[in-house]
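lol so apparently i was supposed to do this last week
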Amino acid sequence: MKINHVVEMQQFDTTLIMELLQLSKKFKEGLVDDCLLDKIICTLFYQPSSRTRLSFEAAVLKLHGQYISTENAKEFSSAAKGETLEDTIRVIGGYCGAIVMRHDETGAARRAAKVSSVPFINGGDGIGQHPTQALLDAFTIWEKFGQLCNLNVQFVGDLQNGRTVRSLVYLLSKFPNNRFIFTSPDLLRMRPDILEYLQRHNVVFREGNEIDRRCDVLYVTRVQKECFPDPAIYDSVFGCYVIDNPIADSLPEHAIVMHPLPRVNEIAVEVDDNPRAFYFKQAKNGLFVRMALLKLIFSDNWGIRPLVF
Ligand code: CP
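anyway here it is w/ phosphoric acid mono(formamide)ester bound
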């Protein structure tokens, strides 16, 4: 039987993305569904999370399922005794119908999916990918603009270590005529694999250090302290961009400011009441998108591309 793992955005095509967004919209509009009535979902988190873990757990409850959870698996699972990730996943698969995992190591999601006997969802792995974040980002953009094409999307901040940015670029580059602006300090530029992917697929992009006011979406990211072994280097880039109301107001009237959250200081609190601020709506949308995803992973005929190991 086919097992629907969700590990990276390359597994999705535009039809599948739109199917998921349409279902997310129905959940947002109040669709009631008990598709998880007989199911237990495990949320296995080796890294801190507020939104991803709690919105998945809320989604499970909304779909009448139950969840088991470890929020600090590094300390509170047998990883602390030296158990391998593969052994942990094999064992947990015997207790639940699906696993949602966050891990600090890039590639951990693929390793886990490879041995998982139940559907596995990547809730973020190292600096790799965070596909469910990209899907909720896309839902937020689609809700605002009614389309996922012909958009100027600017990514700002730590583009080197940001897994949400990587997944969203993969997602949006599947739709026609999107153009990307990558704005970062030189030290935190987007990694070459993504730039090469865009070149291969003839997607227009440019890199720079200054915020460009001509964009439809300003997607701001945190400089991730945990990714800098040398505090001096972190200090040299911390606070490199701070979006305040003068900057937000200088964007086109229709533009939106997004952020996967958590934020530190890269969006001033004063922007929260600005009509362009969409980051809290974005976080709330995570619930509906994750409900849709949890429903679809249990569909035998869901068209997600299987992972090739
Ligand atoms: N955006 C996001 O992944 O948030 P959490 O780290 O709180 O899950």
